[in-house]
Structure formats: structure tokens, C-alpha cells
Design a protein that fits this description.
By secondary structure, the chain is mainly β. The protein is about 5% helix and about 30% strand. The longest helix is centred in the middle third of the chain and has 5 residues.
Length: about 170
């Protein structure tokens, strides 16, 4: 017999609930109860399955930016380069100063002093927005700040309203 912990009613061995008050009864058997699930257990995903493929990064050949005025900037020797504009008032000189290529209009077009960063490493070229005020876009998609994004040949890049194209030749 099993006594109910709530009402002290005597219940038969193996009952799950008190016949008198309905309180769940403590299990008396030391053997674990075997419960078959009503549905088969779904398979556990393999942790070593490769993620879906991302856009194919540009092959590492002669990467370059093509500016709106047709000028080309060779990136093949650059491993890490900040793109922006220089500022005489603070004596800042951007390593890749688009103001030198496109003139003072880049200021009105929203290009920041330290707008974005390009990295070429291991056969891949990535672009990161450096938390710029006017954002960086690749193919119309806004980049999350400080997140390296692979560049693909032919993509249009917008730094504020300054546009250029990434090419690999």
C-alpha cells in the first residue's frame, strides 16, 4: 500500500494518483519506468555538416576598385587598407584617400574620414564598414559595422553616396 502525501488515503501499489484526492503518488519501485515516446525521436543533426555555401569570393588575381570617373585603384598590393578622405584640420591622411581621386565632392557625398576597411588575405578580399555615419553598402545591402564581408567580382559598393565597383582582372 502507498499512503497519499496529501490526505493519507491508502492506495494500491503501482497507482500513479490518489483514488481519494487525485494527488500524484510517489513512485515505489526502484526500477526506472520505461516510457515509449508516442512519436519517433527526430534525428540529431550532424555537427560536422558544412554550412550552406556563401557567395563565391572573388578570386585573388588583380583586385581593384573602379571609380565613377573610370579611374582604377589597384588593390593587389594592399593587405589592410582604410578607405576614406583626408582632413587637413586634424592632419588625418586616409591610406586610400578617395578625395584625391574624386575631389572635394566626396565630402558632400557623405564619405567619412575612416569610412571602410578593405582586407586582402588568403585569396579573399573583404570590406568592413568602420561604423561610418553614412553607412557602407555592397550590392544595395547595408553592411553591419565592423563585420568583414567578402567581395565578389562586379559588385557595386556605396560609401555614403560615393559609388565604385569591385573588379578582379
Amino acid at each position: 500500500m502507498i499512503l497519499c502525501p496529501s490526505c493519507n488515503h491508502s492506495n494500491l501499489e503501482g497507482d500513479g494518483f490518489c483514488d481519494e484526492c487525485g494527488t500524484p503518488l510517489p513512485a515505489t519501485s526502484q526500477e526506472p519506468a520505461v516510457v515509449n515516446p508516442p512519436f519517433p525521436t527526430p534525428p540529431v543533426p550532424d555537427p560536422f555538416v558544412a554550412p550552406p555555401p556563401s557567395p563565391t569570393p572573388a578570386p585573388f588575381g588583380r583586385p581593384r576598385f573602379v571609380l565613377s570617373n573610370g579611374q582604377e585603384i589597384d588593390l593587389s598590393q594592399a593587405q589592410h587598407l582604410i578607405i576614406g578622405r583626408s582632413d587637413a584640420a586634424t592632419s588625418w591622411t586616409a591610406p586610400l584617400d578617395l578625395q584625391g581621386y574624386l575631389g572635394d565632392s566626396v565630402v558632400a557625398q557623405g564619405l567619412g574620414r575612416k569610412h571602410a576597411e578593405v582586407n586582402a588575405q588568403g585569396g579573399q578580399v573583404t570590406l568592413s564598414d568602420l561604423n561610418s555615419t553614412n553607412s557602407t553598402y555592397i550590392a544595395g545591402q547595408k553592411l553591419a559595422p565592423m563585420t568583414p564581408t567578402p567581395l565578389v567580382d562586379g559588385q557595386e559598393i556605396s560609401l555614403g553616396r560615393v559609388t565604385l565597383q569591385f573588379r578582379v582582372m
